[in-house]
Every structure is written in structure tokens, then in C-alpha cells.
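Hi again,

Forgot to attach this to my earlier email, sorry! This is the prediction with nicotinamide-adenine-dinucleotide bound. I've pasted everything inline since the attachment limit keeps bouncing my files.
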Amino acid sequence: MRDRLFIDGKWQAPAKGGTFPVINPATEEVVHQAPAGTREDIDAAVKAARLAFDKGPWTRLSGKERGAVLRRISEIILARKLDLARLEVIDNGKPMPEAVWDVEDTAGCFAFYAGLAEEMDDNPEETITLAEPRFSSKVVREPIGVAGAIIPWNYPLLMASWKVAPALAAGCTMVLKPSELTPLTALELGAIVEEAGLPAGVLNIVTGLGAEAGQPLSEHPGVDKLAFTGSVPTGAKIMAAAARDIKNVSLELGGKSPFVVFADSDIEKAVEWIMFGIFWNQGQVCSATSRVLVEDSLYPALMERLVAESAKIRIGNGLEDRTLLGPLVSKGQYDKVLAAIERGKTEGAVVAGGGKRPAGLDKGYFLEPTILTDMPEDSFVWTEEIFGPVVCVRPFKDEVDAIRMANDSRFGLAAAVMSKDKARCERVAKAFRAGIVWINCSQPTFTEAPWGGYKQSGIGRELGRWGLSNYLETKQITSFNSEEPWGWYIKPA
Ligand code: NAD
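C-alpha cells for the complex follow:
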């Protein structure tokens, strides 16, 4: 575990020498003191990134050369898969197999953007056809400059890769500020890029608190682009800070995503996808399908199976074999989720399953997989993101009723539909006001496909070629090719 910041290719102590504790959420033990970066460190990191962008080799390399470094990063991550996954479990609490999955996805993300970097050499410019024959015009894409990335704690290394990999592929330089709840693997990424031969200053990693390190990064005049994943209130602050200097911003925020299950669905498949949609990663997933809508005639039977199977989910330390549900990430998050369940009860929700600390687990931020029913449509638990293993289920009457309820949200990140009727699935998929739609499943995420939300779930898209575009400027180059004078200025006689 590292106790230095990674700035300008060097491991440096924070300017003010501060630290913050890293707590293992399964044991509540302090496992490390991480370096607490502040405004001074952000300033040094942005200066290093600026210099690397303006004068360094990275931006001037070919796409193939950048791609080669990204591939090395991917290979080193894979070679260190188990130790990175272990750090992720200690830091975040997630079960080891899920952490291994995250690390593999992270390596896959760097490999994917290596491919896109290489492709940039094949299509360096696009010719534009003009209606005016005396002119020719072409378009080139260029790196946007210094990017600032601020990320959350639910997928610590993976969320870093969604921003770092496309930014590096584009030829940008970056300052990364991980969440103070999960700084461990992001710091390892510093060692990984160092080993892969990334030039100094191209990626700088400053751990620290939101107000002390995140805010100065979002306000820094030397940053050209801000990429943020996190909560809506912080996203609003980032956007306000960016507005001052007209910084380019992309935001991936929260959600309260619906999962509409029609009566013709296979009940066992529905139960598995509903559980995966809300209990994977302890429900701390921005796209979690936390509102489940079940057609009236299936509702009683499905509820019975869902409650029965959810009660069998094995809860424990993520490092233990066969654990399916680990602890929530922190005491703060744990208290927030418990308070939401209590609030739900006062609003009329019925706890159909779970809702409390599991028996025998006295330490750690553990919570049973929780199923709430009968909550009013305008209740807190039905409308607000809980970000824990808590699913709210309501019956619906028909397709129109289901779509109305599904779209009745200020969020629009994801939505899912299950039915054997393909035409109905397509219809409902089209009717959802959400950026990510799953048919007959919930949550599988692919690096190749765009990721992001409608409404208050964010602005812009990550992943795929859309993710690369976040870090590219568009420049038109137009030539006047005629030997004739332009003719605006007529010389006086
Ligand atoms: P958060 O907004 O509290 O923190 C996110 C990051 O912002 C952290 O690194 C934090 O230190 C930093 N930060 C906090 N205050 C700041 C400020 N004033 N200025 C600059 N930076 C600041 O969110 P969180 O609790 O870490 O994450 C949970 C939220 O993230 C949930 O709402 C979830 O839905 C969302 N999320 C969204 C996606 C997505 O892809 N849309 C993915 C993961 C998480």
C-alpha cells in the first residue's frame, strides 16, 4: 500500500504531509494511512500535466506508439490481477470474484482504447465536401489538453480506467483524483503506468478528500476538461466550477433504474436477474435496477421466489470463499442505507425480506439483501437512489402503466425489461427515457458500447468510441485553392 502521491512521474509526499485512514469495511479496521493531497499538490499535478501536454512527447507520438503503452498497461494489470483484486476487496468490501472481474474489465478497457489509439493513425483526417468549389476542407481530431478526472468508490480501479484509458489514447494528459474511501488501487495504477513506460507528467494521481483535493482540481484554470463520476450534488458543484472557465465537462451521475418484468417471463430467470441487478456489488452500482415493476398476475409468485432466494445469498467478508454479498463501503454509506430503510417504513413500505444486520456478523458494514414493497409512488425509497442492497418492488397493470412508472423519475441512467415477447421488449426499450437499456437481463456492461444517462443521470457518454470523443477537440482546416482574387476588396481607382 502506497503512502505517496504520483506527480510528474515521481512518488511525492503531500505538500502538507496529511493522511487519511483507509478502513476495511468487512472488519472496520484501519488498514492504511493514505496520502491526503491538497490544493498545493493538485497545483503541482496540473503543472506537470500541462508541461507534459505542451512540451512532452506523449501528445506527439503516433497512435500506434501510444497504443503500445496502453497495451503494456493492460498486460501489467492482468499480470497483477490477484493482488489488485485483493486490494480492491480490502478497500471496497466487494467479493473477490467480483473484484477479479473488475480488474479483468480494467485490463480490457486499456486494451480496447489501445486499439482505438492505433486506429487514429489510419484515419488522421476526414475530408468535408463543400458546396463552394474554390475551397477544400478537412477535419482533424486533436487531444483536448489537460483532463481532470474525479471518480467514486464503487469500482475504484475500473472507474479510473474508463477515464484514464480514453484520455491517454487521445493524447491528453491527466490528473486523477480517486475517492477518499478507496484510494489503494488508483495509487497502484501509478506504479503500473510507470512500469509501462508512460512519460512523466502524463498521468498524475492525487488522493485526498473531496473538498481538499477534488474541488481545487475542478476549479483549476490549468485544466481543460473535467470528467466526473459520482453523486448528483457533487456533479452540480463540478459543473458550476467548470462554468467559470467554460471547461468541457462530462458527468456520470446517479440513477434509480427500473426493471419491468412481464408475466410471460420465466420466473427463475427473472429472480436471478433481479437479484443480480440490485445485489451485485452490494447494490452500490449507479445503474442498479433498484425499482422492480412486476405485472400483476406474476407478482405474488415472483415475490415469493425472490424473497426465498434472496434470503439464501451468502453474506460475509469478500475474501472468504463463496461470499456473494460483502459489506457496504463505509460506516457513512451503511448508516445512509439503514436510514433510507427506516424512512421507507415510515412512508408505508413493507419489509418483505432482509432489512437488518445479518445474524452472526457483529462487525463490518453488513446488511441483508433487502426487499421493500407497498411503498407509495412518491415515497423517498421509490424515487431516490439508496445505493445499497435494497430493492423496491411494485406491481403494474399493463404496458402503458409500466412505462409511465418506469419513466416517472428525475434520473434516466438505465432501464431493463423482461418478456418472452420480442416485439414488446423492443417497444418498451424504445419507450424508456434512459441511456442504457437491457432486454432480458440487467447490468452486463461492455467497453465497446456507450455508457451514460438521460436527465439528471449525467451529460455525455463514456466507453466505446464515444468515450474517446470526450477527450478530443474537432478542428476544421479550410483552404482557398483558387488563383483568382477573393473579390471583397475592390482597389480604389
Ligand atoms: P460523491 O459525489 O460523494 O464523490 C465522488 C467523487 O467526488 C469523490 O472522489 C469525492 O472525493 C469527490 N468530491 C466530493 N466533493 C467534491 C467537490 N466539492 N468537488 C470536487 N470533487 C468532490 O459520490 P460517491 O459517494 O463517491 O459515489 C456514489 C455516487 O456516484 C452515486 O450517486 C452513484 O450513482 C454515482 N455513480 C455513478 C456512476 C455512473 O457511471 N453514472 C458510476 C459510479 C457511481
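The first helix runs from residue 39 to 55. Residues 150-154, 177, 179-180, 210-211, 214-215, 218, 229-231, 234, 237-238, 252-255, 286, 385, 387, 413, 458 surround nicotinamide-adenine-dinucleotide (CB under 6 Å).

That should be everything now.

G.
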